[in-house]
Each structure stands twice: as structure tokens, then as C-alpha cells.
Amino acid sequence: MSIAESLVQLIESPKLRTKLAQNAYKKSKIYNWKKTAHSTFGFFHDVLVDKNKVPGV
To answer: Looking at residues 39-45, what average pLDDT do you find?
Structure first.
């Protein structure tokens, strides 16, 4: 299905729009700035720790 066809389907289907909006809202609940920051800093920490283990890097 093309992007255009998908958009037409969304325009024509209030039920689909509602379902997708509800699913997006539920999914958004697992994200917050504190978790994102912690994950990002953890990633950089791991990269720096691994860098120090490899000679010549």
C-alpha cells in the first residue's frame, strides 16, 4: 500500500484513526525525559568504557 493510499484510508476511517491514536498514546507512556537521558548517558558511558579497552583507539 502506498503512502497516498494509507492517507486516504486514514481520512476515510474514523475508527482506524481512533485506534491508531489510542495505540500511539499507550506507546508514548513508556517514554519520558528521565528515561531517555539515563539511556543516552548509559550509551555514552558504555562507548567510552569500551574505547578505553581497545589499544590504539
So the answer is: 93
Average pLDDT score over residue span 33-57 = 83
Q: How far apart are CA 9 and CA 57, in angstroms?
A: 52
Sorted by sequence, the CB contacts under 8 Å of residue 20 that are 6+ apart come out as 10
* Side-chain-facing half-sphere of 38: CA atoms under 13 Å: 5
* pTM flag (> 0.85): no
Can you tell me the distance from the alpha carbon of 24 to that of 21, in angstroms, rounded to the nearest whole number?
5
How distant, in Å, are the alpha carbons of 8, 31, 36, 50 from that of 13? Answer: 9, 28, 34, 50
Mean pLDDT of 5-33: 96
